[in-house]
């Protein structure tokens, strides 16, 4: 018997209660929670919260709910607590309302549901309070619209600490990874000291104005996912079962409508870009050793980042093509594994040609 | 010992020769929900085996049952064996509002094997569902380490309640029901992403790695089958005709499809995707060309006067770079 098994047997036999550090986050300390809510350090610093930690269950529930609601936007609440500079989300639950971008008061209809759910949660030993809300943007990315910003500013005024989470279920499926964002709004009288250039994300033409107008009223938090040691073990074992689904499911087929809408949107953006192409200017190269130019250099850096419309169109097209290539790779692999006869060489050729295309696209 | 103890010692679970006729599918979400419930209660009660109780939600079509979601249940104050029915009803109705297709189909708990206690609890659920299933998480099997993780199964067991008639007495017992794991696509991606710790970018490399892992699993499983057949031929293992029959059925179904219609559609899809790639490359080239033209203008514009520059620019706008260039040379 190795020492590790001996130790585990000892722990089991003597009922030694041990908590791995990974699981500490699941404990809810009532006193600490009351204390931090009294102190409320976020009132003094609008940028107090830097990250948002989401538990595995909360995340999976939100993604499933978001996908089940496509093409409607769905919303729900999250329960959790504050830990240092981070908002920790332990669980989430769905609300029986369908949000649309024009309904500000969707949350009011679900008030009774919310109050009942949260007050009864205590019976099920779920002691955490409501810490945020989530909703979905099917197909148009993770950001806050004008209505969302208003709702969140309201929430932050009366229910702080509160965080807004947005999920895009269509992008999740097409990209093969979860598309999620967590945001906090600034209070209306506050202007952030410096606007850092955020990572570019492709937004459909119909929504791009709404995105641009309000983009400076909120800031994103880093999203991290955490899981318990038991979760990690179970996930390892789960892989033994669902590897089959990894091969059998194909995003090309299940997300066809979304892929088509992306291409249509890109077409519209490129038509618009066509008009502006003739007036593009190249940035002036900075001269070395010229002191007076040093101050204007940072401004030029920002101008360079502000790509012209054609360049943005290029980024979008690369994303679309790359995702389609990934889907195709899975299909061709399956074809070779399951459909080719030993004598056929065509399969291998197809793979090389496809890999070349995939690498040149990205 | 009294006869009461005798009944307790008799197994509540029928021996494995009786199998349930249910075809049961379990999603990863209930598994992770139960794990989180257990971890949370462990920390709250500071013990290694707290009493965990919850409800299963899912769909039931005849003999096909799918367990999709779960929620926690409460027990009456201080008593571990009486379910808080008000809470159950209210939570169940709330979930019905949001997910109308899901029904209450059973309950779950944490134990190594079902006992008399579980029968007593089971009786309380029969009011909500005709045959509430029992899903059990077996904690002891988790801590045992094994070198071959691919051989390990999930520490869950599902049971279907039934009535056993023996010695002219009837009693409720459980039959173990085998289950398989099913996932929806969004669920699979979310589970995969959390398993990898979240974050990370979509890149060709990570996608290929995921595909490779799946194909590797398939390969390992096939090797096991090949090993089995070799052993049977060598006479080392007794032949099991049902297994051999299913193996030959599997091989007969390959190649998966040589149907012309399938081939056509497959090729069309292939061409569509390659077309997208071509368009993307064209767009990229157009952009690069545009940048090149702009930079060229900057270079030229620095050494000539403005008038020539404007004329040159107009020329380029109409005809592209090279012809315009030639036209301007004196």
UniProtKB/TrEMBL annotation, chain A:
InterPro entries reported in the protein's UniProt record: CSN5_C, JAMM/MPN+_dom, JAMM_MPN+_peptidase_M67A, MPN
Annotated ranges, domain MPN: 52-189
Region Disordered, annotated ranges: 275-311, 343-362
Source organism (scientific name): Suillus discolor
Family: Belongs to the peptidase M67A family. CSN5 subfamily.
Binding partners and assembly: Component of the COP9 signalosome (CSN) complex.
GO CC term (a single one): COP9 signalosome
Keywords, sorted A to Z: Hydrolase, Metal-binding, Metalloprotease, Protease, Signalosome, Zinc
Biological process per Gene Ontology, one example term: proteolysis
UniProt-recorded name of the protein: COP9 signalosome complex subunit 5
CDD domains: MPN_RPN11_CSN5
Gene Ontology MF terms in the entry: metal ion binding; metallopeptidase activity
Highest taxon above the source species: Eukaryota
Entry keyword Metal-binding: yes
Biological function: Catalytic Component of the COP9 signalosome (CSN) complex that acts as an regulator of the ubiquitin (Ubl) conjugation pathway by mediating the deneddylation of the cullin subunit of SCF-type E3 ubiquitin-protein ligase complexes.
Biased composition annotated in UniProt, kind: Basic and acidic residues: 289-311
Automatic annotation (TrEMBL), chain B:
A GO cellular component annotation in the UniProt record: cytoplasm
Protein name, UniProt field: COP9 signalosome complex subunit 6
Aminoacyl-tRNA synthetase is among the record's keywords: no
Compartments (UniProt record): Cytoplasm; Nucleus
Coiled coil: none
Keywords: Cytoplasm, Nucleus, Signalosome
Tagged with keyword Amino-acid biosynthesis: no
GO molecular function: metallopeptidase activity
Boundaries of every MPN domain copy: 24-165
SMART domains in the cross-refs: JAB_MPN
Protein's job: Component of the COP9 signalosome complex (CSN), a complex involved in various cellular and developmental processes.
UniProt organism field: Suillus discolor
Record family assignment: Belongs to the peptidase M67A family. CSN6 subfamily.
A GO biological process held by the record: protein deneddylation
Pfam families: JAB, MitMem_reg
């Amino acid at each position: 018997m190795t020492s590790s098994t001996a130790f585990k047997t000892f722990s089991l036999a003597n009922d030694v209660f041990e908590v791995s550090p990974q699981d500490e986050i699941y404990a809810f300390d009532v006193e600490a929670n009351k204390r931090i809510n009294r102190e409320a350090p976020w009132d003094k610093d609008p940028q107090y919260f830097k990250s948002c930690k989401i538990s595995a269950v909360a995340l999976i529930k939100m993604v499933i709910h978001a996908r089940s609601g496509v093409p409607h936007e769905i919303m729900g609440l999250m329960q959790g607590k504050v830990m240092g500079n981070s908002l920790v989300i332990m669980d989430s639950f769905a609300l029986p309302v369908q949000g649309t971008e024009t309904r500000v008061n969707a949350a009011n209809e679900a008030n009774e549901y919310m109050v009942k759910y949260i007050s009864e949660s205590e019976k099920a030993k779920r002691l955490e309070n409501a810490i945020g809300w989530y909703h979905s943007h099917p197909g148009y990315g993770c950001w806050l619209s004008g209505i969302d910003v208003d709702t969140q500013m309201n929430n932050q005024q009366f229910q702080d600490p509160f965080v807004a989470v947005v999920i895009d279920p269509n992008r999740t499926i097409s990209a093969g990874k979860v598309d999620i964002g967590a945001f906090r709004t600034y209070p209306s009288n506050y202007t952030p000291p410096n606007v850092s250039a955020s990572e570019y994300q492709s937004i459909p033409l119909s929504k791009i104005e709404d995105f641009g107008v309000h983009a400076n009223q909120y800031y994103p938090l880093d999203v991290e996912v955490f899981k318990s040691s038991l979760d990690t073990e179970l996930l390892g074992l789960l892989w033994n079962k669902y590897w089959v689904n990894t091969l059998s499911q194909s995003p090309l087929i299940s997300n066809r409508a979304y892929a088509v809408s992306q291409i249509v949107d890109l077409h519209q953006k490129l038509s618009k870009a066509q008009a502006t192409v003739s007036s593009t200017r190249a940035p002036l190269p900075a001269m070395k050793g010229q002191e007076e130019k040093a101050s204007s250099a940072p401004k030029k850096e920002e101008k360079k980042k502000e790509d012209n419309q054609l360049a943005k169109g290029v980024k979008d097209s690369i994303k679309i093509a790359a995702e389609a290539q990934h889907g195709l790779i899975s299909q061709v692999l399956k074809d070779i594994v399951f459909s080719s006869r030993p004598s056929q060489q065509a399969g291998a050729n197809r793979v090389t040609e496809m890999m070349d295309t995939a690498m040149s696209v990205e | 010992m009294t006869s009461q103890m005798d009944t307790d010692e008799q197994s509540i679970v029928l021996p494995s020769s009786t199998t349930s006729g249910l075809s049961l599918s379990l999603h990863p979400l209930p598994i992770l929900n139960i794990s989180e419930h257990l971890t949370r209660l462990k920390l709250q009660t500071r013990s290694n085996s707290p009493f965990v109780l919850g409800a299963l939600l899912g769909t039931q079509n005849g003999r096909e049952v799918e367990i999709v979601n779960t929620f926690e249940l409460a027990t009456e104050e201080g008593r571990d064996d009486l379910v808080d029915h008000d809470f159950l009803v209210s939570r169940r109705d709330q979930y019905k509002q949001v997910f109308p297709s899901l029904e209450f189909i059973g309950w779950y708990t944490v134990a190594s094997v079902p006992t008399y206690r579980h029968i007593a609890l089971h009786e309380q659920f029969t009011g909500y569902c005709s045959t509430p299933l029992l899903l059990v998480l077996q904690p002891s099997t988790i801590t045992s380490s094994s070198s071959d993780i691919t051989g390990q199964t999930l520490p869950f067991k599902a049971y279907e309640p039934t009535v056993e008639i023996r010695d002219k007495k009837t009693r409720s017992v459980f039959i173990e029901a085998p289950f398989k794991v099913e996932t929806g696509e969004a669920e699979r991606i979310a589970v995969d992403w959390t398993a990898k710790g979240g974050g990370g970018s979509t890149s060709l490399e990570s996608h290929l790695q995921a595909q490779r892992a799946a194909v590797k699993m398939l390969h390992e499983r096939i090797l096991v089958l090949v090993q089995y057949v070799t052993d049977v031929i060598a006479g080392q293992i007794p032949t099991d005709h049902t297994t051999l029959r299913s193996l030959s059925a599997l091989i007969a179904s390959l190649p998966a499809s040589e149907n012309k219609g399938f081939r056509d559609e497959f090729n069309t899809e292939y061409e569509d995707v390659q077309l997208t790639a071509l368009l993307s490359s064209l767009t990229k080239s157009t952009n690069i060309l545009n940048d090149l033209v702009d930079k060229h203008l900057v270079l030229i514009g620095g050494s000539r006067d403005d008038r020539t520059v404007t004329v040159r620019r107009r020329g380029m706008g109409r005809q592209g770079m090279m012809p315009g260039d030639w036209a301007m040379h004196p």
